[in-house]
Design a protein that fits this description.
The structure holds two protein chains of two kinds. Chain A is an alpha+beta fold. Chain A has three helices and eight strands, in the order αβββββββαβα. In chain A, the strands form two sheets. Chain A has a five-stranded antiparallel sheet, sandwiched between helices. In chain A, 32% of the residues are buried. In chain B, a hairpin with a 4-residue loop joins β6 and β7. Classes of the chains: A alpha+beta, B alpha+beta.
Chain lengths: 173, 173
């Protein structure tokens, strides 16, 4: 097991589109262990994608079960060749990225998603995610497509009356 | 040696202010850091970190001709500053209501007592001329927790302003 070095933007390789995983073998499983260790080593990291460590394959890990404030979650999600099947709603939230130190910004993401992905044996599984976890999954899938949250920033100003944002982030009345 | 200056510029808004000022600074060999620039009440305002290898007076000489030509007042301060000093906000507060004097003092006073460190504040007066409304957006760090702020705001909210508070959960992926 090893903590892998992270690519840091403006490293152009972060803009590269990753290729699907076809070989589900010991090499893959060893890499997944390293990727997970790298995610845990980052401060507050709840997700990581293979391109962040220079491996341009469609592999991501998301685990929001240890988030500072408890949120609905599926535990540790290993997402190989993930495909979004459905998206619903939209909500603004704050994101940062281990590959973009010292900056956080607001991004609009789907509120609920349904997706399928392969596990480390190549089996397809289906997941439903909402809120913070859905945000993490979408952020990591973006990495597989060469996109950073910087590509999706929205202004902090003039968004007071966005009703959806209101409902999802406010304490229920 | 620390060569950061805070350059402040204020004057009647017109197109081209940013382009002219930044060109003059670039030509003089300056580097720009973090900035806040916005139109406030028909004025354009700039607070800009400038790195310059000379004295404040010399930087003033760089700015003066272009500021004069655009009808801007300027001010230069040598500052103790560094980049990469961002603090992560963990709470967002929005306040709005019929405009009247004392809203900011009341709200910020209550929040400060409850442990808020304001990192970013934007406010607007909107609505119609005869019935103006005041809208304020704060992002900050709740040093005594978010519940303390919530309790403090409940008292303010009974005085005719709408206040909402939501945690900012930064998704680090």
């Amino acid at each position: 097991m090893a903590v892998l070095p992270l690519l840091i933007y403006p490293d152009e390789r972060l803009k590269q589109v990753a290729i699907p995983v076809v070989q589900f073998d010991g090499t893959l499983q060893a890499f997944i262990k390293d990727l997970e260790e790298t995610m845990s080593a980052g401060p507050g990291g709840v997700g990581i994608a293979a391109p962040q460590v220079g491996q341009f394959q469609r592999i991501a890990i998301v685990d929001v079960s240890g988030a500072r404030r408890p949120v609905p979650n599926n535990g540790r999600l290993l997402l190989i060749n993930p495909k979004i099947l459905a998206e619903e709603g939209e909500v603004k939230g704050r994101e940062g990225c281990m590959s973009v130190p010292d900056y956080t910004g607001n991004v609009i993401r789907a509120e609920r998603i349904r997706l399928k992905a392969q596990d480390d044996q190549g089996q397809w599984r289906e997941y439903q995610c909402e809120g913070f976890e859905a945000r993490a999954v979408l952020h990591e899938i973006d990495h597989l497509d060469g996109l950073l949250f910087l590509d999706r920033l929205v202004s902090r100003r003039n968004d007071l009356f966005r009703r959806k944002n209101y409902q999802s982030t406010d304490k229920p009345a | 040696m620390n060569n950061w200056f805070m350059l402040t510029l204020v004057g009647n808004d017109r197109p081209g202010i940013v382009a002219h000022i930044s060109a003059a600074l670039y030509d003089a060999g300056c580097n720009l850091g973090e900035a806040s620039m916005m139109r406030l009440g028909g004025n354009f305002t700039i607070m800009l970190m400038v790195k310059y290898e000379g004295k404040a007076k010399a930087l003033g000489d760089v700015i003066e001709p272009v500021a004069d030509s655009m009808g801007l007042h300027y001010h230069v301060d040598h500052i103790k500053a560094h980049l990469h000093q961002h603090l992560l906000p963990d709470v967002r507060i929005t306040v709005y209501g019929a405009d009247r004097s004392g809203i900011v003092a009341k709200v910020s006073g209550a929040l400060t007592e409850a442990g808020l460190h304001i990192l970013d504040l934007e406010s607007d007066v909107a609505g119609s001329e005869d019935k103006p409304i005041y809208i304020m957006h704060i992002e900050g760090h709740a040093s005594e927790g978010i519940e303390a702020l919530r309790s403090a705001l409940e008292i303010v909210a009974t005085e005719g302003v709408e206040v909402s508070l939501s945690p900012i959960e930064t998704m680090m992926g």
